[in-house]
Amino acid sequence: MKFTRKAFFGAIAGAAMLAAAPAAFAQNVTLRFHQMLPPQATIPAKAIKPWAAKVEKESGGRIKVQHFDAMQLGGKPPELFDQAKDGVVDLIWTVLGYTPGRFPKAEVFELPFSVGKAEPASRAFQEYVEKYAMDEFKDVKLIAVHVHGPGMFHSKDPINKLEDLKGMKVRGGSRVINIMLEQLGATPVGMPVPAVGEALSKGVISATTIPWEVTPALKVSQIVKNHTGFSGDTGLYTQTFAVAMNKASYDKLPADLKKVIDANSGIEAAAMFGRAMDDGDKVGLAIAQKAGNNIITLDAAETSRWQRAAAGVRAVWYKEVAGKGVDGPKLAAEAAALIAKHSK
């Protein structure tokens, strides 16, 4: 058999391609990132995209992140965590409170008047989860957890005092927040945040509890004209969030790409998401101010009335989580200490 020069070099090239192919195949991956909000909202635009860009850059372009906003890949917001767990998608961002009772230890950060600025509180929440609640995330590769800034009311009618809330239909974003609303005299209506704008427009609810940062994406400052916040260093409440990755998607990465994901997980990732929330609060407030809306900050005396009225939420929560073998008072004290540590 005659072996030509052309065939010889062709064989060498083919062998080189075959040798390189497995390595190239193993080291290039596309991760699908699914979340509930429109792409212009704070977290998709100011946290998820920068996080993904950082991962892509540090991987030398070997990791690509595809963004799927507003539940483009199907399902409902409460299903996002399971989509990551089950491998329907590779990465998700979600609200932990959308699956009531699933994350009882994490709920401690939702207790009333606990949290102020989102960045230090997100650092505290990440450290807390790593110390006390990783078992609640055993089914996923946890990238980070975080919280939003001071929770407040956005309402059709002004809320100037505690009595104004009586009987008002108010959207709550989690089980703990709904317990709080009920104790404050409101009629809580649970729903994921993407439904808030339409619910306000149609009169399904008269007010919603959300921070300033998400109001622009939902056009809340156009739909209602009254916004009520509180005096002091903490907001009425916060919600808890997680960025999670499918375990198999992580496990099949080569070691060097796992290191890239690991380097973009943990407390600094949590802080980045919290910082985006804080910056988003400034934007949302500015929009409402420019619109000439009625922005109410309850004074210290009235805020104290709300704090006393909401105090019973802790007792209810302590009793409920005790049934799951969770020491609520101990975890609440640990959370408070971590928030104080990171807020210095």
Provide the descriptors you would attach to this structure in a database record.
single chain; 344 residues; alpha/beta; 16% strand
Q: What structural class do helix, strand and pairing data support?
A: alpha/beta
The averaged pLDDT comes out at 94
Report the sheet with the most strands, covering strand number, pairing sense and barrel closure: 6 strands, mixed
Distance between the termini: 80 Å
Q: Spans of 5+ residues with little confidence (pLDDT < 50)?
A: 18-26
**What is the beta-strand fraction?**
15-25%
How many helix segments?
A: 14
Helical fraction: 40-55%
- Sum up the overall morphology in one term: globular
Nearest-angstrom radius of gyration?
23 Å
**DSSP E strands, number:** 11
Q: Could you state the order of secondary-structure elements as H and E?
A: HEHEHEHEEEHEHEHHEEHHHEHHH
Strand order of the largest sheet: 7-6-8-5-9-11
